[in-house]
Design goal:
Number of strands: 6
CATH architecture: Alpha-Beta Complex
Structural class: alpha/beta
Low-confidence stretches: 135-145
CATH topology: Protein-Tyrosine Phosphatase, Chain A
Number of domains: 1
Strand order of the largest sheet: 4-3-2-5-1-6
Distance between the termini: 35 Å
CATH class: Alpha Beta
Shape: globular
Radius of gyration: 14 Å
Largest sheet: 6 strands, parallel
């Protein structure tokens, strides 16, 4: 990134289908001059329906207003495969694997959401963006589930 700031929505503490849908709606509606980008990690402890619940996120209305969705974790492979080509970003097994690509994926003016279960370590994505020095506007939300 060259100069400017990123609006960073840090919801990297926990995730379930309802909270994921709400966070994607917030991302899609957040004002900004750049793109809307999501880094989504696995939602844990969903039982035998975990893969369809992950893939089902692709059908959310908010997804149509998000420019790029990057998926992190084995369960998020289901969402990655279900996303429309023009919204599908990269897939990574871990958040650590995504770090080297952040500088090429996030630019000044973008609005970025990091959301996933705590064990997926999406806080690493948040820290990586902050370390690029462009996350002037930041929001952190630890929601109770």
């Amino acid at each position: 990134m060259n100069g400017g700031s990123v609006t960073l929505l840090d919801d990297s503490y926990n995730a379930n289908p309802t909270s994921m849908a709400a966070a994607l709606a917030v991302l899609s509606a957040t004002p900004g001059t750049g793109r809307r980008i999501a880094y989504l990690g696995d939602m844990k402890e969903l039982g035998p329906e975990e893969l369809p619940l992950h893939a089902g996120l692709a059908a959310l209305e908010a997804v149509g207003r998000i420019d790029r969705i990057h998926c992190i974790g084995p369960l998020m492979k289901a969402l990655h495969a279900a996303l429309p080509d023009d919204r599908r970003g990269a897939w990574y097994a871990t958040s650590a694997q995504a770090l080297p690509d952040l500088a090429d994926q996030v630019a000044a003016g973008d609005v970025v959401l990091a959301k996933g279960s705590l064990s997926m370590a999406l806080a690493r994505i948040v820290d990586g963006i902050r370390e690029m020095g462009h996350a002037a506007a930041s929001s952190h939300n630890k929601e109770a589930e």
